[in-house]
């Protein structure tokens, strides 16, 4: 259960090796150790993540999760809830891909779309169902500023995030009557493995900073947050910039 | 889909459940038969601060419709009541017979079932003990749907007293009330300059009074820290009443003093208003001995506070209440110092000395000092309360489940060493775990 001051007792990370996802767990666990379920493909990184959280006193369970196999997702989510209620579920998996490959290669484009959009949808449906049954809980979906307005440089990724963002924004409304809170987090450029080697955009941030904003959002039951916060104003301006001008901006 | 959002008096941590109104014992049995995998819990008037009367995704029985007073026997003081009867209604019915409910909490808007479930205490605890001490028998519907009449010779009786609804549903109880000549109190109020003196004064002469409590100001600093009012009283006898009250000595004189939401806009309870409130409260009651006061004036000034739960803003508030052994009165000071250092304001601080506890394994009162403070939920409160928990538990103290909303299962295990004894009795009565609540999940009270 989430208590009166907003401490959860259990967190599920869909995409259990996600740096942002793990940073969020660590931020919650800095107040109190948690029961954590990491859902990811088996890998050394998953083992390392588990060890890292156990060191903080968390009880960690791992389950097998393949984002490209949506037909298994209901079962994965069922297994995640088998050990007791999940108070907070993080939808934290995704691929950045290489945009130039993605928009010219069918397989690469479909993989991005499947992982970032289709899987996010199937996981969201399954989580929504379980949380409605348990009568409480919070879902956090990590979207991206890239979904706000597609740019030439990463529009395939941006298009998948636009889709997932729209889905979870709708899910926020759909699950509200069930007492389930859905928060969409829109980070900007985050220094992670995913963005290694890319030149950082203005207002770039870190997984820890995104985590702090996310924890705060869950505690205050906020529905949409930006990381860092000022991006909200930047993006609402950029959204309305005319195309010929937008094209020439260094964003 | 579970369709009603429920939360406690502190307005924190809402969850959704299927709320089923109960009008008879048969309704309870039917609801138990229809219960799904997420179980059932009873709810009275929802005056607990946290989540003991919530059951996310499951069934919550609204007991307030089971509200008949079956009989009042003026001679023996025995009353037979349904569990959903409020203490307010019961007092109004019993007073004309010269009968007084010996245990009254800071609000009368609680049900008999809720009073048993939390084994509530009042300002007379040092003399009369807690609510369970005055229950002659109770009818409990257990998980199998059957009703049992339990008396203090049954272990299940004592597991139900203070058992937070987790042994079954109380549908009826026989209570034994006290005889009084009047509905008024003869009150001694002493205005005292600081906390140490207040605690010292409160430690003497307690046995001369039926009711005692103190309120103090934790906002003012320095030499004034903990200045407060020690309020002690006995029931007024007929000849102690002023002539104008003597005509109707048993009149239930319970006016509403003041409605707070109009005074404090939402979320405005901060250092400033806390200071203002403390000043007014302290000034309004200079030392005065032998004043005749009605029930609201003396016992239920907290009914003013009752309205405050809306004034704490969208994140709600919590009440931190603990008891520590009498020789560890220093913890009261320690807790206040820590709160002060962390910049947390509590406008209302109530201090009381408990007398002997009873046999119930989860009953809260035990000989000691009990302090309650109200704090609005804000950032940093969680870690602060975790620190306070350590102070309390290291001193051999514990937390009151009716007010609890954020501690850990370990803290409850440490504070209630008889938890396993209680679990054994509970598990025998409910082997499949039908009774469950948000609190029982959060604090791992049941397995
Ligand atoms: C302003 C204020 C002042 C207070 N002052 C005091 C005080 O001085 N002393 C004190 O001890 N408490 C005090 N309390 C707390 C209050 O007395 C308890 O929380 C009490 O349990 C509330 O009763 P309720 O009917 O609202 O029960 P709820 O809050 O609805 O339920 C409380 C518990 O009782 C169980 N329960 C309710 N009905 C039944 C039933 N029929 N059968 C089995 N279990 C049942 C529930 O499952 C739950 O676990 C105060 C509360 C407020 C709001």
TrEMBL record, chain A:
<dbReference type="InterPro" id="IPR002347">
    <property type="entry name" value="SDR_fam"/>
</dbReference>
<protein>
    <submittedName>
        <fullName>Decaprenylphospho-beta-D-erythro-pentofuranosid-2-ulose 2-reductase</fullName>
        <ecNumber>1.1.1.333</ecNumber>
    </submittedName>
</protein>
<keyword id="KW-0560">Oxidoreductase</keyword>
<dbReference type="Pfam" id="PF00106">
    <property type="entry name" value="adh_short"/>
</dbReference>
<dbReference type="GO" id="GO:0016491">
    <property type="term" value="F:oxidoreductase activity"/>
</dbReference>
<comment type="similarity">
    <text>Belongs to the short-chain dehydrogenases/reductases (SDR) family.</text>
</comment>
Automatic annotation (TrEMBL), chain B:
<feature type="domain" description="FAD-binding PCMH-type">
    <location>
        <begin position="12"/>
        <end position="180"/>
    </location>
</feature>
<dbReference type="InterPro" id="IPR016166">
    <property type="entry name" value="FAD-bd_PCMH"/>
</dbReference>
<dbReference type="InterPro" id="IPR007173">
    <property type="entry name" value="ALO_C"/>
</dbReference>
<keyword id="KW-0560">Oxidoreductase</keyword>
<dbReference type="Pfam" id="PF01565">
    <property type="entry name" value="FAD_binding_4"/>
</dbReference>
<dbReference type="InterPro" id="IPR006094">
    <property type="entry name" value="Oxid_FAD_bind_N"/>
</dbReference>
<dbReference type="InterPro" id="IPR010031">
    <property type="entry name" value="FAD_lactone_oxidase-like"/>
</dbReference>
<protein>
    <submittedName>
        <fullName>FAD-binding oxidoreductase</fullName>
    </submittedName>
</protein>
<dbReference type="Pfam" id="PF04030">
    <property type="entry name" value="ALO"/>
</dbReference>
């Amino acid at each position: 259960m989430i208590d009166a001051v907003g401490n959860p007792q259990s967190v599920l990370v869909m995409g259990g090796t996600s740096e942002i996802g793990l940073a969020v767990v660590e931020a919650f666990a800095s107040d109190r150790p948690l029961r954590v379920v990491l859902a990811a493909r088996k890998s050394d990184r998953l083992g390392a993540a588990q060890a890292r959280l156990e060191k903080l006193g968390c009880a960690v369970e791992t389950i097998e999760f393949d984002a490209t196999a949506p037909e298994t997702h209901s079962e994965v989510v069922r297994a995640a809830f088998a050990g007791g209620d999940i108070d907070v579920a993080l939808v934290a998996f995704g691929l950045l891909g290489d945009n130039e490959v993605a928009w010219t290669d069918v397989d690469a484009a479909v993989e991005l779309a499947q992982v970032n959009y289709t899987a996010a949808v199937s996981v969201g449906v399954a989580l929504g169902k379980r949380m409605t049954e348990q009568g409480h809980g919070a879902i956090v979906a990590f979207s991206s500023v890239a979904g706000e307005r597609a740019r030439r440089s990463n529009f395939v990724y941006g298009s998948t995030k636009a889709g997932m963002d729209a889905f979870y924004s709708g899910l926020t409304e759909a699950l509200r009557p069930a007492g389930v809170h859905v928060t969409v987090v829109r980070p900007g450029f985050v220094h992670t493995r995913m963005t290694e080697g890319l030149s950082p955009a203005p207002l770039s941030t870190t997984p820890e900073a995104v985590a702090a904003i996310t924890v705060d959002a869950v505690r205050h039951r906020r529905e949409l947050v930006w990381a860092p916060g000022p991006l909200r104003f930047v993006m609402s301006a950029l959204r309305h910039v005319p195309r010929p001008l937008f094209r020439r901006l260094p964003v | 889909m579970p369709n009603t959002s429920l939360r406690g008096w502190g307005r924190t941590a809402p969850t959704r459940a299927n709320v089923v109104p109960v009008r008879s014992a048969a309704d309870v049995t039917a609801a138990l038969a229809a219960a799904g995998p997420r179980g059932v819990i009873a709810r009275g008037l929802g005056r607990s601060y946290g989540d003991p009367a919530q059951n996310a995704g499951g069934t919550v029985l609204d007991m307030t419709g089971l509200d008949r007073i079956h009989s009042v026997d003026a001679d023996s003081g025995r009353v037979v009541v349904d569990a959903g009867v409020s203490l307010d209604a019961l007092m109004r019915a019993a007073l004309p017979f010269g009968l007084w409910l010996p245990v009254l909490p800071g609000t009368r808007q609680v049900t008999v079932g809720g009073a048993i479930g939390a084994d509530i205490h009042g300002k007379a605890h040092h003399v009369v003990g807690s609510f369970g001490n005055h229950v002659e028998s109770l009818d409990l519907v257990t998980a199998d749907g059957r009703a049992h009449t339990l008396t203090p010779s049954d272990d299940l009786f004592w597991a139900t007293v203070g058992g937070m609804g987790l042994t079954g549903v109380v549908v009826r109880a026989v209570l034994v009330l006290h005889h009084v000549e009047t509905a008024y109190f003869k009150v001694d109020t002493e205005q005292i300059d600081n906390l140490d003196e207040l605690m010292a004064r409160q430690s003497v002469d307690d046995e001369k009074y039926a009711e005692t409590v103190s309120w103090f100001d934790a906002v003012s600093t320095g030499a004034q820290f903990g200045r407060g009012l020690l309020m002690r009283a006995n029931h007024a006898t007929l000849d102690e009443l002023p002539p104008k009250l003597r005509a109707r000595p048993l009149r239930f004189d319970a006016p509403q003093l003041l409605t707070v939401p109009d005074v404090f806009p939402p979320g405005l309870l901060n250092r400033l208003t806390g200071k203002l409130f403390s000043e007014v409260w302290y000034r309004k009651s200079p030392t005065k001995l032998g004043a005749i006061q009605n029930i609201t004036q003396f016992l239920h000034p907290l009914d003013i506070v009752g309205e405050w739960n809306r004034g704490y803003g969208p994140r709600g508030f919590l009440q931190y209440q603990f008891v520590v052994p009498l020789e560890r009165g220093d913890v009261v000071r320690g807790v206040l110092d820590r709160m002060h250092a962390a910049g947390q304001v509590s406008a209302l601080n109530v201090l009381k000395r408990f007398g002997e506890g009873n046999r119930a394994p989860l009953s809260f009162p035990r000989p000691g000092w009990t302090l309650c403070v109200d704090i609005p939920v804000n950032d940093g409160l969680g870690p602060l309360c975790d620190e306070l928990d350590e102070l309390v538990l290291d001193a051999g103290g514990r937390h009151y489940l009716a007010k609890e909303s954020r501690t850990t299962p370990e803290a409850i295990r440490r504070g209630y060493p008889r938890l396993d004894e209680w679990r054994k009795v509970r598990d025998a009565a409910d082997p499949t775990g039908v009774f469950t609540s948000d609190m029982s999940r959060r604090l791992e009270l049941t397995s």
